[in-house]
């Protein structure tokens, strides 16, 4: 039986440019109903903070990673989310491939943070998109970053105020160029897996008399999350549960869910052949044919994607089945109508059918 845990793998504290501490983040994660949350401060690995935090009968597993980039470079491109390194690695940030090699040498995980992060010149925000696509050895990409999407929509001060006070209008889905690049990597057979995060800072902002936190941790932890599939429930042993969560993320046993319009808990994507079966992140030999199955927690527009191309679309459906006759990298997407727009809701990791 599969057990699903929900977490947010990208947020910041006062140790870098966030505005809360680890306890603030843990409280907000409990309020948001998360099972785990990963603090990823910029160029600082804060050891000794991992563990379960409790409030009454509720709990959340707080984990610590790091977002590393070369601080001497202007603008500061190529941000890398690093997990399971066990030590500070910012000293390797001067060269991205050297950093990735250091992560791999420690059996850590590396995900390219906000691959597309456009500038917002009205607010003196630089373009922080990923640039060095010649590197190798990363485990995946942050397919959907909520705050990068917010930043991309700051076309005017009036627009900024509107979105600051109506944040449910922001998210529509991953940037198309990020999806396109990911699909190219998958079609080349590269096991590059997707996660999604809020990039929460809980930063206070002001414009004249208007003052607001952009955006509270609790709100952001209800938006773009990573849902991880485990073989057994979390045990309560923080070290063991940490290993299991990151092991599943390494294997692509997870999906990206936008949980604000409706909970994405319960989504499944799997493939079945004449002899075996595969879940997200897995592979299957085609042989005599294969069937892919998609299930969403509620009725939605569902798409099956092969190597970046839409194979089949189901409208207003909760379950979908498709017979596969060609090898390729298959993944699923689901969309919901929310706040007057059709918005991205769920993005699966791939199943490779060979």
How is this structure best described in words?
- The protein folds into two domains: 256 residues, TIM Barrel; 73 residues, Immunoglobulin-like, CATH 2.60.40.
- It is 19% helix and 38% strand.
- It has seven helices and 21 strands.
- Strands 1, 2, 3, 4, 12, 13, 14, 15, 16, 17, 18, 19, 20 and 21 form a 14-stranded mixed beta sheet that branches.
- The longest helix is centred in the last third of the chain and has 13 residues.
Please, how many helices?
A: 7
Structural class: alpha+beta
Helix content: 10-25%
Radius of gyration: 20 Å
**Structurally, how many domains make up the residues?**
2
Order of helices and strands: EHEEEEEHEEHHHEEEHEHEEEEEEEEE
CA(first)-CA(last) distance: 26 Å
CATH class of the largest domain: Alpha Beta
What ranges have pLDDT less than 50 throughout 5 or more consecutive residues?
Answer: none
- What is the CATH topology classification name of the largest domain? TIM Barrel
Based on DSSP secondary structure assignment, what is the total number of beta strands? 21
CATH superfamily of the largest domain: Metal-dependent hydrolases
% residues in beta strands: 35-45%
Chain-averaged pLDDT: 96
Biggest β-sheet description: 14 strands, mixed
Rough shape?
A: globular
CATH architecture descriptor name of the largest domain: Alpha-Beta Barrel
């Amino acid at each position: 039986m599969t057990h699903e845990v929900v977490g947010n793998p990208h947020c910041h504290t006062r140790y870098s440019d966030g505005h809360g501490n680890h306890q603030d983040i843990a409280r907000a994660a409990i309020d948001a109903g998360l099972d785990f949350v990963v603090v990823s401060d910029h160029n600082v690995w804060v050891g000794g903070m991992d563990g379960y935090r409790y409030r009454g009968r509720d709990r959340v597993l707080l984990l610590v990673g790091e977002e590393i980039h070369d601080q001497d470079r202007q603008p500061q491109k190529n941000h890398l989310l690093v997990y399971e390194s066990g030590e500070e690695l910012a000293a390797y940030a001067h060269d991205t491939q050297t950093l990735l090699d250091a992560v791999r040498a420690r059996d850590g995980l590396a995900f390219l943070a906000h691959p597309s992060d456009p500038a917002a010149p009205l607010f003196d925000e630089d373009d922080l998109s990923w640039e060095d696509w010649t590197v190798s050895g990363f485990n995946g990409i942050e397919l959907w970053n909520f705050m990068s999407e917010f930043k991309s929509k700051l076309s005017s001060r009036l627009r900024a105020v509107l979105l600051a006070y109506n944040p449910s209008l922001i998210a529509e889905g991953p940037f198309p160029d990020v999806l396109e690049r990911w699909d190219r990597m998958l079609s080349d057979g590269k096991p590059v897996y997707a996660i999604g995060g809020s990039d929460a800072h809980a930063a206070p902002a002001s414009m004249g008399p208007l003052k607001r936190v952009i955006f509270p941790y609790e709100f952001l932890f209800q938006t773009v999350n990573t849902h991880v599939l485990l073989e057994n429930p979390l045990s309560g042993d923080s070290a063991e549960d940490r290993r299991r969560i990151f092991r599943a993320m390494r294997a692509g046993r997870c999906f990206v869910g936008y949980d604000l319009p409706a909970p994405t808990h319960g989504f499944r994507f799997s493939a079945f052949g004449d002899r075996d079966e595969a879940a997200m992140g897995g592979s299957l030999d085609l042989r005599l044919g294969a069937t892919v199955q998609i299930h969403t927690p509620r009725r939605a527009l569902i798409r099956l994607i092969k190597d970046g191309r839409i194979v089949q679309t189901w409208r207003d459906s909760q379950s979908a089945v498709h017979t596969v006759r060609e090898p390729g990298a298959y993944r699923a997407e689901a969309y919901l109508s929310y706040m007057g727009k059709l918005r991205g809701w769920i993005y699966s990791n791939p199943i490779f059918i060979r």
